[in-house]
Amino acid sequence: MNTIDNSDFNWDELLTRITMNNVVPVIGQGLYCVLTSGNKKILLYQHLFEELAKDMGLPPPEQTNHAFSEVVSQYLKKTKDYLRLGRLLRQNLASLYPIEANPLLKLARIRPFSMFINTTYDHFLEHTLNSVRNYHTEVLHHTYREKRTDRVTSELLKLLEDYQSSLLFHIYGSTAITINPAYTEKDILETVVNFQKDVEMDPKNPLFQALKEKSLLFIGCGYDDWLFRFFIRTFANEPYQASSERVTWKFIGDDFAGSFKFDKLACFLKAYDSDVFYNNDGEDFVDLLFDKMNDQYPEHIIPEDEFPETAFISFHGGNRKSAIRLVSHLREDGIKVWLDQRAMKPGDRVDETILKAIDKCQVFIPLVSEKARQLQREKDNGLRYHIREWEWAYSENVKRNTPRYIIPVKIDDTDWMYDPFKDMTFFKIPGGNRKGHYEKLRDRLLEIQK
Question: For labelling, which of 42, 79, 146, 409 has a CA lying 20 to 30 Å from the CA of 161?
Fold first, then answer.
């Protein structure tokens, strides 16, 4: 099998177009690597099709290239139940979370990527964008059964250009919002065909106009030869013709060597001199892209200290294990949490970093316990560090009259409550475990985080 010399990849052109907010990433299954409950690293959709095959009592397919669609097709032939399939997928997704420093996180940190086309069905990219960016992510979907592209307005596109919003477009639907996503190869093909029809019937649609004017960056899509050609042709919305003037470019960072018909696909892309492609896996491509952007255009990378958070967890040092346990569960469930794990000494001031973090978070969660009650004050009658955080959060809430939420959480059987919080609704979560009112707290935070 022939390979492509990656030294030919035009990084300068791609980076320049990204800084001009001219590139739309098209994200595929190859970028979704997760940790299972057994701490095993695996591609998300490989794990999902293995679980589906297990549910049917069948061995997983030997060929993993887009095997998820094949297994889903078998599942639907057997059950004819999209709703059951959706429930099963959601149950599996709930127990998984992305690896640290995953490709989605790196893409989300590249500020000029304001519009994403997603070819998967999960919530991970949406949650990743919301964990990195301080502004709202609009989530839309378009399948052959449902059309939601009419919600894309010129006003929204202006917000995207100004980095005041993000757009995540699920081309095949998702398990969260769509009743019947396009899971099977037949449904995928029908969706792409109908998308092209929608473009032809409504060429002035702002989304279609934006896609026509911008360059496309395909990463980790991993389709077979014929489907990938059709997919690229549809989204490019232009005939493949050799031209001396390139209006839009199509950049491809993918593992073509994993395709059965790589040679034909490579020839197809190269014949019209209209695509630049990098022959390696998508994760490797994103690593290089992020490093090059960070080296050459660091102002376009969102720094970690700008990441937004939903909840600030405040606790007494003696409750550190319970705090870490609660934070771990909340993060696994997709909630953004700020936790300061530094060991504070008596008399330490609540520094500016902590105050900024408290102000930035939408929710302030004090962990109430008997130990926190007993140790409210130092020997010199000064307030303990955790009480000073609580005092600050409460006074700022009153002073600003903002919709800040203070949600006290009791982590033991204490009857005590910090006096300013006495009239507030609290949750009881013993030891920070998934017990008591944990699910109620989680659901409330997820609702606030939307």
Answer: 146
- Residue-wise over 11-26: b if at least 16 C-beta within 10 A, else e? beebbebbbebebbbb
How high is the pLDDT of residue 402?
60
pTM: 0.70
Distance of CA 327 to the CA centre of its chain: 19
Helices (H), 273-351: 282-296, 320-332
- Residues pairing with 367 in the sheet: 409
Q: Are 427 and 440 in contact (CB under 8 A)?
A: yes
Do residues 160 and 179 share a domain? yes
DSSP secondary structure of 132-169: H-SS-EEEEEB-SS-B-GGG--HHHHHHHHTTS-EEEE
Interval 168-184: pLDDT, tens: 999 888 887 666 788 88
**Number of domains into which the chain is organized:** 2
Same domain for 353 and 431, yes or no, is: yes
Q: What average pLDDT score do residues 327-354 get?
A: 66
Mean pLDDT of 386-405: 75
Query: Counting beta carbons within 10 angstroms of the beta carbon of residue 135, is it exposed (0 to 12), middle (13 to 18) or buried (19 or more)?
Result: middle
Are residues 341 and 284 both part of a single domain? no
CB distance 21 to 112 below 8 Å: yes
Number of Cα atoms under 13 Å in the Cβ half of residue 440: 11
**Closest of 123, 103, 334, 316 to residue 219, by C-alpha:** 103
Question: Does the pLDDT at position 404 exceed 70?
Answer: no
